[in-house]
TrEMBL record:
Cross-referenced Gene3D superfamilies: 3.40.50.970, TPP-binding domain
InterPro entries: DHS-like_NAD/FAD-binding_dom, THDP-binding, Thiamin_PyroP_enz_cen_dom, Thiamin_PyroP_enz_TPP-bd_dom, TPP-bd_CS, TPP_enz, TPP_enzyme_TPP-bd
Compositional bias per record (Polar residues), positions renumbered to this chain: 1-18
Domain Thiamine pyrophosphate enzyme N-terminal TPP-binding: 36-148
Keyword terms, alphabetized: Metal-binding, Thiamine pyrophosphate, Transferase
GO molecular function, one term: magnesium ion binding
Protein name as catalogued: Acetolactate synthase
Family: Belongs to the TPP enzyme family.
Transferase listed as a keyword: yes
One GO cellular component term: acetolactate synthase complex
PANTHER family: 2-HYDROXYACYL-COA LYASE 2, THIAMINE PYROPHOSPHATE ENZYMES
Residue ranges occupied by any Thiamine pyrophosphate enzyme central domain in the UniProt entry: 221-351
Cofactor(s) annotated in UniProt: Mg(2+); thiamine diphosphate
Length: 577
């Protein structure tokens, strides 16, 4: 019986990757094993020590390969495939090296698709290996027979089928290299079940050095000229600054050039909380009054007004510069006064050097002092609501209690709408790499997977998962995974008994809302206790702090369920459209 060809994207034999260097044999000589053995060995060579999965017979050879590897690879099994992929994606975000999820065929793969899409939108390095109905039965209706790569092609860098066990080493190696190459993202491979069990004697690859792309020096000179002429510039640092390992270069650029900076996504913490040049709390004033916006490592999407800054009336008055890790990430919709792409450390250091060559040395002290006044005013305004004694509890009061209890190296994960928006306003990390959120795809339900990954990747750090009550309902069953694998995490639910992000806009548009209310004061802490963790419900603002202390001291997954005021929505300026 003929096999349906299923290769979508560059893993087909005729396509090459100029940006990815081929690997050489490891030098250990050919090794015998089934396809699962070889796939696990290649993943380990790329730094993988944990396989996230939900049990399925189509991928048993991967489990066997992990158990018999030397050293063994941890198998962390979850209660829903989306959690496995969200965890692997979060590993990629935190370690900047691809995480690995292994999914069984058919619904196992499709259940993971939202998390794969999140990785694509966030630029997270991720490899997903799926099972596949046997090639020898293809077309006859085997269990969960489904051609996955065409389904996943739009939300991956590459999606392909490995048709022959002899190809498994080369294809898995290529998958990891492509996932890790800028601009990072997810790669999917599936392997027919009969080929997974097939044995082959193959050379194992050796990892190669990362290839760094030099930016165009003329492009940097042009940007430096714009910056030297600006009177009110602002720098915006996004996720790819962290993902590309450019956090030190970014802070160096901010401090040596003397630029006011705003951070978003995993750019948060690159300029630490309290730094005099961090003006995120004066965001509206900075973005609304600047005459030059330099955006680094983040798209000009709805979170940044689609690249429209310095607005006066309906017209944009600010020039915009976009700096990205690859040319494909540069904005195509926003008018740009300048742009450059390449390794972001080289881009930022190169721009700093180019600015030093400019004859004009700008003085932005007045602009910076003005923004600092706005920051101080915002801090003063925030202090009142962070101490609010209202009944029901104002959501901001939770952050008034949480922020002082966070260590500098804490990992904080946001999974929710309104409640997590408050976190973005009141929580400024001290260090980079400590903030995780769904990114521009806005996918709820990612939190438990991210918490699992954070506890593994940062075993000595506090791990705090912030959940809206809507998001909590999507993933709390995987507290069972935290308990079974002994992964203590502090969870805080802002429970306003509603889909707050939808309730308020619908009332604004129609004067009423439907499909926006949840059961009042649901005891999410009871769910956690039933699954083997701990928790409590809080209705008095004075009790939040002591409850958080108990959570941090518990040594088990612990959920603090805070009943909040549904009539205190986050004061947002955009609904993402």
């Amino acid at each position: 019986m003929t096999q349906t060809p299923s290769t979508t994207g560059p893993l087909s034999e005729a396509t090459t990757h100029p940006s990815v260097e081929p690997t050489a044999p490891s030098g250990d000589g050919p090794t015998d094993g089934h396809a699962g053995d070889h796939a696990v060995a290649v993943a380990a060579l790329h730094g993988v020590d944990t396989m996230f999965t939900l049990s399925g017979a189509h991928v048993f050879p991967m489990y066997d390969g992990a158990v018999n590897a030397d050293p063994t690879m941890r198998i962390l099994d979850v209660r829903h495939e989306q959690t496995a992929v969200f965890a692997a994606e979060a590993v990629g975000k935190l370690t900047r090296s691809p995480g690995l999820a292994v999914l069984t065929a058919g619904p196992g793969v499709t259940n993971g698709s939202s998390a794969i899409a999140q990785a694509q939108f966030s630029g997270s390095p991720l490899v997903v290996i799926g099972g596949r109905a046997p090639a020898g039965r293809w077309g006859s209706g085997a269990l969960q027979e489904f051609d996955h790569p065409p389904f996943l092609a739009p939300i991956t860098k590459m999606a392909a089928t490995v048709h022959n066990a002899d190809d498994i080493v080369d294809k898995v190696d290529e998958a990891f290299r492509v996932a890790a190459a800028p601009h990072r993202g997810p790669v999917f491979l599936d392997v027919p079940m009969d080929q997974f069990f097939e044995r082959a004697t193959l050379d194992r690859p050796a990892p190669t050095a990362r290839q760094r792309t030099e930016p165009d020096p003329e492009a940097l000179d042009s940007v430096a000229a714009l910056l030297s002429e600006a009177q009110r510039p602002v720098l915006i640092l996004g996720t790819d600054v962290w993902a590309d390992g450019a956090e030190e270069a970014a802070l160096r650029f901010v401090e040596e050039v003397g630029l006011p900076a705003i951070t978003n996504g995993m750019g948060r913490g690159v300029v630490p909380s309290g730094h005099p040049l961090l003006v995120t709390k004066a965001r509206s004033s900075a973005l609304g009054r600047c005459d030059l916006a330099i955006v680094v490592g983040t798209p000009l999407d709805f979170r940044l007004g689609y690249g429209v800054f310095g607005v006066k009336g309906e017209a944009a008055t600010a020039k915009v510069v976009h700096l990205a890790d690859t040319e494909a990430q540069l904005s195509r919709h926003a008018p740009l006064a300048g742009s450059a792409h390449g390794d972001l450390t080289l881009v930022l250091d190169g721009l700093r050097a180019a600015l030093e060559r400019q004859r004009r040395k700008p003085d932005w002290s007045g602009w910076i002092e003005d923004l600092q006044i706005h920051v101080a005013a915002a801090v003063q305004r925030d202090s009142t609501v962070l101490r609010a004694e209202t009944d029901p509890i104002h959501p901001a009061r939770i952050y008034g209690e949480l922020v002082p209890r966070l260590a500098d190296d804490a990992v904080v994960i946001g999974d929710g709408g309104d409640f997590v928006s408050f976190a973005g306003k009141y929580l400024e990390p001290k260090k980079p790499g400590g903030w995780l959120d769904p990114g521009p795809f806005g996918c709820l339900g990612a939190g438990l997977g991210s918490a699992i990954a954070a506890r593994l990747a940062r075993p000595s750090s506090q791990v705090v998962l912030l959940l809206g009550d809507g998001a909590a309902g999507m993933s709390l069953m995987d507290v069972d995974t935290l308990v079974r694998h002994d992964l203590p995490v502090v969870m805080v639910v802002g429970n306003n008994s509603a889909w707050g992000l939808e309730k308020q806009p619908m009332q604004m548009l129609y004067g009423y809302d439907v499909a926006a209310d949840l059961a009042p004061q649901t005891r999410y802490d009871d769910i956690v206790r039933t699954l083997g963790g701990g928790g409590e419900t809080v209705t008095d603002p004075a009790h939040i702090g002591p409850a958080l202390d108990r959570a941090f001291d518990a040594g088990v997954p612990y959920l603090v369920n805070v009943i909040t005021d549904v009539d205190q929505p986050y004061p947002r300026n955009t609904f993402g459209i």
